[in-house]
Q: What sequence folds into this?
């Protein structure tokens, strides 16, 4: 157990360093003449889909199911979210449609993992591959235009104005979801069952609880949160769908989950770090003087490079649930 | 627990893949019906378009050529117990190599084709190495790292293509491959070139490597039974590096097949349009081909057929061609869940 304590301390230290880094960053920006409030706003916006997806995946993975099809769920729900918003004439209902679609895909994934005893890595990859073709098919089938669909501005999910700047309700929801997920996993009976299903499915079974149902439920919850994230990207960030809308965010969220060691609150912190690194780097890169030296192509690489750096240096060997990714077979 | 494969025809594996393909096509038909298309008409044109005439078969083979190679990238890592989905980025970087050595410089005609091919393969391998090193050094999961490298490659390749290799007469593409760097077209009017023989030879070479050499045996041992491999003194680090490097060579060759082996372009578009998604499609091909380099050849012909035939399907049945990519994903999902395939197979038998 000693190593686990050490890694926990190390994680805290890293978080502290990250917070200090962000604070210094704000100061530098102030000096350079950039507006820290707008950076805060863009950082929180970038954080939101990552946080939702990562928090959902924490719940899923705690139950012993590893869903790497998040990228695909983000893609599909970004389309169904817009479709729902246009169908009901309301952006928030679009988010709900995204959540339901995500839950549905999570449910299918859970069924495949539990009853089909699927190789979860391959099934998740299959969802990702399917999504790339499917959303392009959907874009054509629904709106008759290849690769892109922009929605009416009035259906977008707009941020609300607070004394500290603009803030999206979905961002608040994401933070609340992380807190609720923490409480769910650590303070409730259901959470105990979810964790037990990941650690020791036999014991759960012996205690008379259905491992299959617990895992499917956890996977559906994870899919639903990811679905809100996907719909948020199209409804709040972009105001439409482009075929590369997810741009690796599903995998960056997976990196958050790995970083967090499956703890929702740490996953939120990781998403915050990723969101801010992205926002900060973009802000610096487009600053006059720097902008002329660094081509925009390299600015676009920043989220991916920072993900690589963080998973390389900030992630020690994590302890994952014992039955992670292993189908449970009743004797 | 994975089993070592027996070098006779694995009937069970083939039927397994066939059933998964059937499941994928049926679910694809469902998606057509939902959006008001006639699946029978669509599949008729899909398969007639793909295999109906000799020129179409040639075209299907041209589509299959890069896919059998990117399938090797995934398959050889899977044989080593890894999940390398970085072929996409390795193809992009390899394409830069093919353009640089095939179009940007002039070499004697006899050797340029070989130099361009080898340079593309080496760059593909070079791009595969960092993910392997991160895995060996820090245990970074290759799924996350290879996707990140794919995205970095996307922007790096676009940047280099536009700033250093662009065609002075046409900014949206790179300089075209010189005539001496182009693989000869096999049948006038089709886009199938002699590079298909190189691709097949490479796949056969990988088969011989995996099942005929000590290094290949060690690679499979690490994938099938890591503990036994450790006791046998096999270095898993070397296997990780080697499987990624060989995968990178395969992806680089796939890139070369598109740049210097595929008319009418003979170039790389700045949108990466003529190399995009080859790496991801290769994952599906590898899985349908049971992660076997020879199985991958047949799976690639099937997948290439879907891609070529999809144009006919779109034109004659109105089903948007991207659906075939979704069908590919559904086949992979069906393959992932063997029990579901078994259930379907039992139903079919009774």
A:
């Amino acid at each position: 157990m000693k190593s686990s304590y050490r890694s926990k301390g190390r994680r805290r230290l890293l978080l502290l360093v990250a917070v200090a880094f962000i604070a210094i960053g704000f100061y530098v920006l102030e000096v350079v003449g950039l507006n820290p409030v707008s950076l805060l706003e863009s950082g929180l916006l970038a954080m939101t889909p990552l946080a939702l997806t990562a928090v959902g995946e924490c719940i899923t993975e705690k139950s012993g199911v590893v869903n790497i099809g998040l990228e695909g769920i983000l893609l599909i729900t970004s389309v169904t979210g817009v479709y729902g918003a246009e169908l009901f004439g309301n952006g928030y209902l679009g988010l709900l449609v995204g959540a339901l679609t995500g839950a549905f895909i999570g449910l299918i994934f859970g069924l495949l993992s539990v009853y089909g005893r699927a190789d979860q890595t391959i099934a998740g990859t299959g969802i990702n591959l399917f999504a790339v073709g499917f959303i392009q098919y959907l874009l054509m089938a629904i709106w008759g235009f290849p690769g892109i669909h922009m929605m009416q501005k009035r259906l977008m999910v707009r941020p609300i104005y607070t004394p500290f700047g603009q803030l999206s309700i979905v961002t608040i929801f994401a933070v609340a979801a992380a807190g609720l997920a923490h409480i769910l996993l650590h303070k409730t009976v259901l959470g105990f069952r979810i964790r037990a299903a990941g650690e020791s499915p036999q014991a759960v079974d012996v205690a008379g609880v259905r491992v299959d149902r617990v895992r499917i439920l956890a996977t559906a919850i994870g899919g639903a949160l990811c679905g809100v994230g996907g719909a948020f990207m199209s409804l709040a960030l972009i105001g439409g769908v482009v075929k590369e809308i997810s741009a690796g965010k599903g995998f960056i969220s997976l990196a958050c989950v790995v970083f967090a060691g499956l703890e929702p609150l740490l996953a939120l912190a990781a998403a915050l770090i990723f969101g801010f690194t992205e926002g900060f780097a973009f802000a610096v890169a487009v600053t006059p003087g720097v902008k002329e030296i660094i081509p925009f192509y390299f600015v676009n690489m920043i989220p991916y490079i920072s993900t690589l750096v963080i998973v390389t240096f900030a992630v020690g060997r994590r302890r994952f649930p014992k039955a992670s990714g292993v189908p449970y077979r009743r004797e | 627990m994975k089993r070592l494969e027996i070098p006779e025809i694995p009937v069970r594996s083939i039927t397994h893949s066939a059933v998964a393909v059937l499941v994928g096509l049926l679910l694809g038909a469902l998606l057509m019906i939902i959006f008001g298309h006639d699946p029978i008409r669509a599949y008729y044109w899909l398969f007639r378009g793909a295999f109906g005439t000799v020129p179409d078969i040639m075209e299907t083979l041209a589509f299959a050529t890069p896919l059998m190679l990117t399938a090797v990238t995934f398959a050889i890592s899977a044989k080593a117990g890894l999940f390398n989905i970085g072929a996409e980025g390795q193809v992009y970087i390899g394409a830069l190599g093919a353009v640089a050595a095939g179009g940007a410089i002039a070499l004697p005609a006899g050797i340029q084709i070989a130099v361009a091919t080898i340079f593309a393969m080496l760059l593909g391998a070079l791009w595969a190495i960092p993910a392997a090193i991160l895995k060996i050094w820090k245990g970074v999961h290759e799924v996350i790292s290879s996707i990140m490298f794919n995205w970095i490659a996307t922007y790096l390749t676009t940047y280099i293509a536009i700033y250093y290799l662009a065609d002075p007469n046409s900014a949206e593409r790179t300089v075209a491959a010189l005539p001496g760097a182009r693989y000869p077209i096999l049948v006038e009017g089709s886009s199938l070139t002699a590079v298909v023989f190189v691709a097949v030879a490479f796949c056969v070479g990988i088969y011989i490597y995996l099942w005929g050499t000590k290094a290949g045996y060690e690679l499979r041992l690490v994938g099938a039974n890591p503990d036994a491999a450790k006791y046998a003194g096999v270095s898993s680090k070397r296997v990780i590096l080697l499987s990624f490097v060989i995968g990178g060579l395969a992806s680089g060759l796939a890139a070369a097949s598109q740049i210097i082996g595929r008319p009418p372009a003979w170039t790389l578009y700045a949108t990466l349009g003529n190399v995009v998604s080859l790496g991801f499609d290769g994952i599906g091909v590898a899985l349908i081909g049971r992660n076997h380099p020879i199985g991958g050849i047949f799976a690639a012909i099937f997948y290439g057929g879907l891609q070529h035939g999809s144009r006919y399907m779109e034109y004659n049945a109105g089903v948007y061609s991207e659906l075939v990519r979704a069908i590919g994903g559904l086949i992979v999902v069906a393959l992932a869940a063997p029990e579901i395939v078994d259930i379907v197979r039992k139903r079919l038998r009774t």
